[in-house]
């Protein structure tokens, strides 16, 4: 190591032996990639870079993100604006989950629940209704047809069913009208 | 990576804190109903409550309830069609109350008033008018007006078969 510092002209910069051709090619590729991110940067010496990369890799302190951002490869502070190019999937997942949680919290705090809405809009003294089951028009029409076709023996029952169906239909119609005007359904 | 996870966790903690601080809707004080409720909706709500009570009352009590409802001023904000329908419903129930009390003539007067109102409406629902005619049929029958009862029966049948407005 001390030899390398004493003699910067040799390839054995880190005392680990001369840089091989393969290491040199990798270092050149890395240098080209790094230079491509910053055209104003001075040309990188491939041999020095290769030796440095090899040294820190053996030391265990170099990882992919460091190589991509250029931090430490050339020493000093990270380059301005240097960012990892790949945002890992877990980051996206975390961001989506956080956004969804935010939307839910906002919705809960803003949108009133139907029960509260009903209670707050009910005028004083008016009896609270249980929500009536929706009465399809067909049921009233069916009751009407049954009354039309009723025999003298079945007429009373048919009339009672018709009156009940009419009341249910009317209640549903009034509920819909009230709801249209902002009242409780 | 670690910074991203840390930032996401911070956002989650912040949102959780906001959720705890935000007052729950159920804790809000109840609003003043008379201010929020539309006058038309208030009238319809009273009418609906009145109609719902009728089934539990005897004919004289039903007539009193209906009389009180008929005497209540109808808000002008309600469309004329809705007001006409309410008038028809009141007259129909008055007719049925008289019918149940055995006062056939009064029942006929009330149901004919309802039919006249329905006839004057620009738009009429077939099932609604058919039901009105069927009510008229039983009222006419009880009053001994068999010819009028047959007419109402025929009109209701034609209406239910064709589905068209008479």
Summarize the structure.
The complex is a heterodimer of chains A (185) and B (166). With 185 residues, chain A is an all-alpha fold.
Radius of gyration of chain A in whole Å, from Cα?
41 Å
Which overall shape of chain B is indicated by the principal axes computed on the Cα atoms?
A: elongated
Number of strands of chain A: 0
Helix % of chain A is 55-70%
| Quaternary structure state of the chains depicted | heterodimer
Secondary structure category of chain B: mainly alpha
The proportion of strand residues of chain A reads under 5%
How would you describe what is shown here?
The complex is a heterodimer of chains A (185) and B (166). Chain A is mostly helical and 185 residues long. In chain A, 59% of the residues lie in helices and 0% in strands. Chain A is built from 8 helices and no strands. Chain B is mainly alpha-helical and 166 residues long. Chain B is elongated and about 90 Å long. The termini of chain B are far apart. Chains A and B meet through helix 5, helix 6, helix 7 and helix 8 of A and helix 1, helix 2, helix 3, helix 5 and helix 7 of B.
Secondary structure: elements and pairs:
The complex is a heterodimer of chains A (185) and B (166).
Chain A lengths: L1 H5 L14 H17 L8 H14 L4 H6 L19 H22 L3 H8 L15 H12 L6 H26 L5
Helix pairs in contact in A: 2-3, 7-8
Chain B lengths: L1 H20 L11 H4 L2 H16 L4 H13 L8 H21 L3 H17 L5 H17 L3 H17 L4
Helix pairs in contact in B: 3-4, 4-5, 5-6, 5-7, 6-7, 7-8
Please describe the structure with a list of short key phrases separated by commas or semicolons:
heterodimer, A: 185 residues, mainly alpha, 8 helices, 0% strand, rod-shaped, disordered N terminus, B: 166 residues, elongated
């Amino acid at each position: 190591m001390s030899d390398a510092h004493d003699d910067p002209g040799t390839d054995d910069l880190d005392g680990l032996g001369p840089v091989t051709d393969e290491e040199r090619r990798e270092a050149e590729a890395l240098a080209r990639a790094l230079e491509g991110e910053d055209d104003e940067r001075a040309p990188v010496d491939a041999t020095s870079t290769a030796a440095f990369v090899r040294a820190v890799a053996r030391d265990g302190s170099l990882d992919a993100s460091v190589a991509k951002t250029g931090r430490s490869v050339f020493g000093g502070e990270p380059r301005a604006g240097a960012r990892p190019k790949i945002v890992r999937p877990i980051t996206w997942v975390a961001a989506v989950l956080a956004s969804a949680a935010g939307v839910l919290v906002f919705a809960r705090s803003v949108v009133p629940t139907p029960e509260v809405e009903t209670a707050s809009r009910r005028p004083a003294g008016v009896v609270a209704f249980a929500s009536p089951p929706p009465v399809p028009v067909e049921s009233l029409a069916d009751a009407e047809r049954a009354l039309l076709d009723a025999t003298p023996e079945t007429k009373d029952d048919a009339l009672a069913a018709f009156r009940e169906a009419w009341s249910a239909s009317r209640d549903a119609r009034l509920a819909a009208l009230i709801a249209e005007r902002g009242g409780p359904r | 990576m670690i910074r991203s996870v840390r930032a996401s966790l911070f956002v989650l903690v912040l949102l959780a804190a906001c959720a705890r601080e935000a007052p729950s809707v159920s804790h809000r004080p109840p609003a003043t109903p008379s201010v929020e409720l539309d006058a038309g909706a208030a009238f319809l709500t009273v009418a609906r409550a009145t109609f719902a009570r009728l089934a539990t009352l005897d004919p004289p009590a039903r007539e009193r309830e209906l009389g009180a409802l008929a005497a209540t001023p109808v808000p002008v904000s309600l469309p004329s069609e809705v007001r006409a329908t309410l008038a028809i419903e009141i007259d129909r129930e008055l007719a049925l109350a008289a019918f149940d009390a055995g006062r056939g003539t009064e029942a006929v007067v009330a149901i004919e008033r309802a039919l006249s109102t329905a006839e004057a409406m620009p738009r009429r629902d077939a099932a609604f008018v058919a039901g009105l005619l069927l009510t008229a049929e039983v009222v006419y029958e009880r009053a001994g007006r068999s010819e009028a009862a047959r007419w109402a029966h025929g009109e209701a049948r034609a209406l239910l078969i064709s589905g068209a407005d008479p």
